[in-house]
Amino acid sequence: MPEIRSAPLAVICAQAAPGALDRLIAPGYDAVVCRTAPDEILVFCPPEVAEDVLREVTNRLPALDEHGLVLDLTDGWHAWTLVGPDAREGFSAVSALALPGGDGFTQGHVAQVSAKILTAADDVTIIVPAYWSQHLRERLVADAAGAGS
Amino acid sequence: MAGSIDFEWRRVPFEDGDTVASAVHRTGVRTWNRSLKYHRRRGLYCLTGDCSNCLVNVDGEPGRRACVTEAIEGARVRRETGSPGPEWDVLAITDRMHWLMPVGFYYKAFIRPRWAWEFAERMIRRATGVGRLPTDGRFEPKRARTTHCDVLVVGGGVAGLAAAIAAAQVGERTLLADEGALGWSLSAPALQARIEELSAEARAQPNVEILQGHSCIGLYEGPSAALVGPHGLVEVEAGRVIVATGAVEAHGVFPGNDLPGVWLGRGAARMAVRHGVAPGNRAVIVGEGPEVQDHADALRDAGAEVSLVAGRVVSANGRRRVTGVTVETADGRRSFACDALVLALGHSPRDALLRMASGLPVGGAGDVVLPGCTPEEAEASGRRAGAGEPDAPSYPVSWPAMEPDGYVCICEDVGVHELEVSWDEGWTSSEILKRYTTATMGPCQGALCGRHLAFFAESKGAPPAATGLTTARPPVRAPKLEDLVGGVHEVIHKRTALHERHVSAGARMDRSGAWQRPGTYGDRREGYLAVRERVSLMDVSTLAKFLVAGRDAAALIDRVFPTRVRDLAPGRARYLLALDEAGYVMDDGLLSALPDGRYYLTSTSGGADRMEAWLRNWSDRLDLSVHVVNQTAQLGAINVAGPHARDLLVSLSGDDLSREAIGHPGHADVTVAGVACRAIAVGFVGETSFELHHPRSRSVELWDALLEAGHAWDIRPHGLDALDLLRLEKGHIYLAQDTMPDDHPGKLGLSWAVEASKPWFVGKASLERMAALPLQRRLLGLEFDRAPQRGAPLSVDGRIVGRVTSCGTSEVLGRHIGLGWVRCVDGVFPETLNAGALTARVAPTPFYDPEGVRLRA
Amino acid sequence: MSLLVPCPHCGERPYTEFTFGGELRPIEADGPEADFAQVYLRENAAGPQAERWYHEAGCKRWLTLTRDTVTNTIER
Hints:
The structure holds three protein chains of three kinds. Chain B is an alpha+beta fold.
């Protein structure tokens, strides 16, 4: 049975020309850089380093695209993580998405709402707009928690 | 494990591996059901879960096929047809009254007199049907999950196993699903041994997953499949699908073919081999081919006397069960006494899944595509399919012709006679014949009778288009509703950060579109009066909020909206209309200009997703470099409204909140109770109001601080109920309530919000065209002599000319007010109208504070 | 269980992840009559049709593709 944990996660957004984002170097700090659209990246990182990541990206982007935009969107998202060997099976009960093996990123419908998903070896982190946080949790408890039992 | 089940009033012992059918058959039960319409006796027939003769109620669940239901200790099994039961059925008399109830009779008889039909219908319904649904409210929520694979194989016989092994050997992730245990429907000992070998080999492959007890009920584009298993639905997204569902023995159509004691050959053999139960003491097997000999051996081993006859079955004889059979042999017509008639007349592929998947990467293997093939041929076919080269389907090699009488569709009691009568009435294609007679629409879904229906149409000389097999559609096995609803939840709510605060304040939470919002905190008058007289708060976090930035931000807003944009200075705000390409109003909101060429756009809560799509679409079509950030979730918003709104904010902020600092409409960045906010001066409710847009993580803190400090002015929060009346008093519209999908701004009195001189904006050309047309309909303010009802029609001289879209009784004004649609009559808009029994007078809006004095205070 | 739509950024996805944006139509019209047709009339072709689709569940970006409305197949 996978465990469901609330995962504190900071979200930094950068929007710029696709070519600029291609050349943007990852800010480090354990941050995961996800290319959510040709002209948009979301950087997920622990809240403790959010300020650093925001600063790094804000410093690096203007040289690549002077009209680029960098914002801290942390408040707009909420993350829940399914933990344990049954995490992926639990996920399959709330979404038809095929998950990347190992560490990866995908986005699509989870529990009938649009979500971003980060995968690691034994856990799956689902990130939704903050107003759906309660909805996602209820679905995970109702459908995903029973996996592997 | 042996044990016993409760079958009606007795305990029936069973042996290890028994099905309910085999255990009960051993006790001598031969009549399992009474048929749907004519209450004819039915007994075990196919033994493979295809027909509907053995449907029983197991542990309260109706519609279980006894022939594939494992006998489990303590199971309570009941037959469910016949009054009082299938052995003695009062309604068996209906079988003598075919003349009264011919095919389609419910379209002809009992229709007149019309008042009698309702009574007749209820009687007819009660007299038919198989089984009763449980009414004790039990419902076991099932789960659903999705799995992905390269190859899905449906059916775990020799062909399916061979296919799965072959696919796995070329490295494909393979899922093999069977509705029962692997090879469960096969009986010949040699075959069973081969199944064991293949199963072991399949299990040894690292990339093969086997799901037993999972029935594939449908194939869809993708290709994807729906499997129903013991725990619920499994949706499979596959790269390709191999259907190896085998064949069912051909159903024979002759007089007496539906009597208890008539069996399909493979089913009878399986019962004999697996359960040691013979269908009867003296069995006659009619048919030809090597399989027939295997059937005979199996039945003999189970203790039956067996005669093998080659020829055409003319009739099965007997009244309550088979007592003999008449066969047209090479030596002429012969009759044989028997208590079991076993048919081996041909093979009907179970190909519904294949037929519904045309155009998809789905192929077949085994006797579903090569009916009548040997086990070795089936295995080779499986290997070819697994390697990616499935065999094309071929027609059944032999097919029994229909005798002039007999039941074609035993599920729905449709006989040859019924088909002939319907054809003569003019229903002359297989598809329409199906719909008129209901043949193939029963639990077997045409598995037994589908080909007979098609051949019947062909034999009548119908053109090819009218003689095909009827369209195959999911589900091919009946799933329970609780399986289909697993994992599907209808209610998805968005919540603001203040949700818990509203709930603990005793708010009545309403569904407002996708959001949960407080309707009222106790009596709505309290919130309403607080707004008009003192100060109040409302959670407006649900508002759509967008940051629009980038090189072409101004250009995008200028072209997408009809609003004048270029002269909007930072710190100022302007009412924003959103029009579609036809010039119709689809949304409205507020546009605020920020420094550095950025804009902050707010619009109606319900339209957030559409607005985001709209902005993104136009920036793409117009090839503009724009950054659109949907901040609806990220920012909370609290509206502080009332004559003392400014006083309250001043008490919590050191910033300049005067009229000069925040124009109206306008905005400024201020800190309130330590929370950084964008304060937007708005006027929706007609009092001094500030929408405080702030980080969602600080909503609770800000709300609490405002309420606390607001005690000094006896603050109360207000919700949607109060808002409705407040905005109505100002004549402000609610989109989709007061507007229709084809309203251009002129009809709503909002032409002032359109900058017609702009060279281009979405909908401009349409607006220009419509501006030249006279206005036929307008949204107008109304006053009533008594409290009106929303939706009431407005009429003039008995002719309906409009409708009340919003209304309410204004306490501060002491008037009954509303908004409504009014058409012009003879080119003139009426001043007085009737709203049902009330009188309505057109009144100018705003009703309350028309000069806007209170907003300028 | 669905028609698969090829999102240029996210790959093949079920159509349920998208909002359908209708036939592709010109932005500007040549004149009032052309505008009338553009706004109120659709080609509604029985055959290949250029269409706008919005990947609402994923990248939230628009794409244009050609779909045959008779066979319901998308050109790739």
